[in-house]
Design goal:
The chain is mainly beta. The protein is built from no helices and 20 strands. The strands form six sheets. A four-stranded antiparallel beta sheet has the order 4-5-6-7, with no helix packed on it. It has a four-stranded antiparallel beta sheet with strand order 8-9-10-11, with no helix packed on it. It has a four-stranded antiparallel beta sheet with strand order 12-13-14-15, with no helix packed on it. It starts with a strand and ends with a strand.
Length: about 280
């Protein structure tokens, strides 16, 4: 959403642009189909729309005139692109490959300094499929299946380095960082994780909150003594720490146990989660 214009990744139709200046009567401004693949995610920066196109990889569109959208470039990522984030001249794409080669799991980094000729400049293989990615400063947060959350040093986009992993109870789908708190959409529910201890010589201390849904408390809960906790694995020494310095929100949120959460966003002191019922 930019101003009163909504940009949508329509799985079947491609990129769709809608005028929502009158929320009670949205109107279509324009659309552009993908040459191949299916649209799963879109982010607009300036006059360019970056679209994940699943098996077709990354597509870039010129949306300076929403009524006449034009394709700028497309690039096969050799995997199934799930979501992306754009920081400066770089596009970070999370990849998964259902039933395919595990060599395509992970993060791909594209240089889009010249949007008409995007080029892969960096990559990081992961042990399991990734569904989402968010980049804050020099740290990329990757969300996926087996390992849950990965933190990656992208201070050098051409050589991303794994900092740590945090194994959630289910599959992490998406998340957002506010201050030193990661709000996470997981198939088991809505989790909040502390990012205070992202120094690779120590372990992240965040745990899923334990209060029943709808009963926020002042502090994240801690597991009872004697119960094992999930620990991140494989963090190399010498990696830079997170650059987030603001204090965490003074509110924590209970787990949403009604179903799997697939998307979350944070507005002020409210975390909004969208989920699906588990039948």
């Amino acid at each position: 959403m930019l101003g009163t214009t909504a940009y949508l990744a329509d799985y079947s139709s491609g990129l769709v642009v809608v005028d929502v200046s009158d929320p009670t009567s949205p109107s279509l401004l324009g659309s552009a189909s993908l040459t191949t693949g299916k649209a799963t995610y879109v982010k607009v920066v300036g006059t360019l729309a970056y679209v994940c196109a699943e098996l077709a990889g990354l597509s870039i569109f010129d949306v300076s005139d929403p009524t006449a959208i034009s394709l700028v470039a497309s690039l096969d990522t050799s995997g199934i692109s799930g979501r992306l984030d754009v920081v400066g001249n770089y596009v970070y794409v999370s990849q998964h490959n259902n039933g395919g080669s595990e060599s395509n799991y992970g993060l791909k980094v594209f240089d889009v300094t010249t949007p008409s000729t995007p080029a892969v400049v960096g990559s990081l293989l992961t042990a399991s499929a990734l569904f989402g990615v968010k980049v804050y400063g020099d740290v990329a947060y990757l969300f996926g299946t087996a390992a849950g959350v990965h933190t990656v040093d992208v201070s050098n986009p051409t050589s991303p380095q794994l900092m740590a992993t945090y194994d959630t109870a289910g599959s992490a789908d998406n998340g957002e960082v506010v201050g030193d708190v990661l709000y996470l959409a997981d198939t088991t529910g809505f989790l909040t994780l502390s990012l205070i201890n992202t120094d690779p010589t120590s372990k992240p201390t965040g745990e899923p909150t334990g209060e029943p849904s709808g009963q926020p408390s002042g502090e994240p809960s801690r597991q009872p003594s004697g119960q094992p906790t999930s620990e991140p694995t494989g963090e190399p020494s010498g990696q830079p720490t997170s650059k987030h310095t603001s204090k965490p929100s003074d509110k924590s949120f209970g787990d949403l146990k009604a179903g799997g959460v697939i998307m979350t966003t944070v507005l002020g002191h409210l975390a909004i989660a969208a989920g699906v019922a588990l039948l």
